[in-house]
Automatic annotation (TrEMBL):
Similarity annotation: Belongs to the histidinol dehydrogenase family.
One Pfam match: Histidinol_dh
Cofactor note: Binds 1 zinc ion per subunit.
Region (Disordered): 1-25, 416-436
Protein name, per record: Histidinol dehydrogenase
Cofactors: Zn(2+)
Residues involved in substrate binding: S231, Q253, H256, H322, D355, E409, H414
NCBIfam families on file: hisD
Length: 436
């Protein structure tokens, strides 16, 4: 891992951002989306054979495959899955929103009606790993929001099967609709529908670069949660941190894929040196060494800060997906953090705790987007409609103001919409006078 000053790291980060060119990727993704829109299931099956190396007879996971998955996973895994589900449900129940209304003088009623999105698609990655935890993290908030129809898409393996762990998680979460489709083609199918896959109104879940770009291009026709980039962790460690813990936590993210970004910000040169040694030793004992080593070489950085204040400022500029505060008094210093997807406090709150068991969502903003976005939650699966009711008398009181504002904007039909009601009111009064 390179060792840099905070200033030099932020400059390097800026240079990389300015050099990013996704035009070639976008061309490929747009072509895939177009083919799926035109050919539906035929395009999906052709691309599954091309990209995943398997020829599918059917796209939908059958009940028999669910039963096979049920018998393939052991009871210990099922118990762990159940515990995780209960913790995720307990946390996300606190995010539920209610419709609300306020009554004002004159019979005015204003409010907000909260309605769940009707149909949602969840993308679960495949390839280098299996992600049953992502099933729970994406499905449970949608269920708590009241979404009626939830479908999962995930790439099959070379035998045409979906990971039994993913199917077990889907069954634990109560989802029976799982499609064997991955990549940009799966996103296109969810957005626009095929003969087999019904279109949805929102797509959530992480994926590779093709999935991320496809979500970008279908956004507007459907909603999306976020455009996820590579997984990243930033650890702020002072001289009191345990270097073995720091190294292990950095490696836990480096093993995701070669593009993962493990970062350490420390005020201690000794900590930096010891962590580097620990990383070398611990990597030799891990299964995914090749991926880890590439991640560390390409994106791993140890950033030296002169003070904790500079460390906090650096972390806020990075706006990481995962931020660990392995420092003295982490709760006191929490106020210094403004940009992070999830914040882990102390030596015994490692990032994998959030990935699997604690309860908060692990679908988090990446690539610096934590400066403006939030973790996936129940709030992502509802719509909010404003509700307005004015009786005649209340409208009359504000009618002249509305007309003036409309005329100032040159929108005379807006003004006429108010005037016609005033004129009708005057006509009604005249008729009542003539009748008397």
């Amino acid at each position: 891992m390179k060792v840099l000053s905070a200033e030099h790291y932020l400059q390097e980060k800026q240079n990389k951002s300015s050099q990013t060119d996704d035009s070639h990727l976008d061309e490929s993704v747009m072509a895939i989306i177009s083919e799926v829109r035109q050919e539906g299931d035929k395009a999906l099956k052709r691309m599954t054979e091309k990209f995943d190396g398997v020829k599918l007879d059917r796209i939908t996971v059958s009940e028999e495959e669910f039963l096979q998955a049920e018998s393939a996973v052991n009871q210990a895994f099922k118990t762990a899955l159940k515990t995780a589900r209960e913790n995720i449900e307990a946390f996300h129940k606190e995010q539920k929103e209610q419709s609300w209304f306020i009554n004002q003088p004159g019979g005015i009623t204003l409010g907000q009606k909260v309605t769940p999105i009707e149909r949602v698609g969840v993308y679960i990655p495949g390839g280098k790993a299996s992600y049953p935890s992502s099933v729970l993290m994406n499905v449970i908030p949608a269920q708590l929001a009241g979404v009626n129809e939830i479908a999962i898409t995930t790439p099959p393996d070379r035998d045409g099967k979906v990971s039994p762990y993913v199917l077990a998680a889907a069954r634990e979460a109560g989802v029976d609709t799982v499609y064997k489709a991955g990549g940009a083609q799966a996103i296109a199918a969810l957005a626009y529908g095929t003969e087999t896959i019904q279109n949805v109104f929102k797509i959530v879940g992480p994926g590779n670069a093709y999935v991320a770009r496809a979500k970008k291009w279908v956004f507007g026709d459907v909603d999306i949660d976020m455009i996820a980039g590579p997984s990243e962790i930033c650890i702020i460690a002072d001289a009191t941190a345990n270097p073995r813990f720091v190294a292990a936590d950095l490696l836990s993210q480096a093993e995701h894929d070669e593009a993962a970004r493990p970062l350490l910000v420390t005020t201690s040169q000794q900590m930096a040196d010891t962590v580097r040694d620990e990383i070398t030793q611990q990597t030799e004992q891990l299964e995914r060494q090749a991926i880890i080593q590439q991640s560390l070489k390409q994106n791993g950085r140890i950033i030296l800060a002169e003070t904790l204040s500079e460390a906090f400022a650096t972390a806020n500029a990075i706006a990481p997906e995962h931020l660990q505060l392995m420092i003295q008094e982490p709760f006191v210093n929490l106020a210094n953090i403004t940009n992070a997807g999830a914040i882990f406090l102390g030596d015994y709150s490692p990032e994998p705790l959030g990935d699997y068991a604690a309860g908060p969502n692990h679908t988090l903003p990446t690539s610096g987007t934590a400066v403006f976005s939030s973790p996936l939650g129940v709030y992502d699966f509802v719509k909010r409609s404003s509700v307005i009711h004015y009786p005649k008398e209340a409208l009359n009181q504000v009618s002249e103001d509305i007309i003036r504002l409309a005329e100032a904007e040159g929108l005379t039909a807006h003004g006429q919409s108010i005037k016609i009601r005033k004129d009708d009111d005057h006509a009604s009064s005249d008729r009542q006078s003539q009748d008397s």
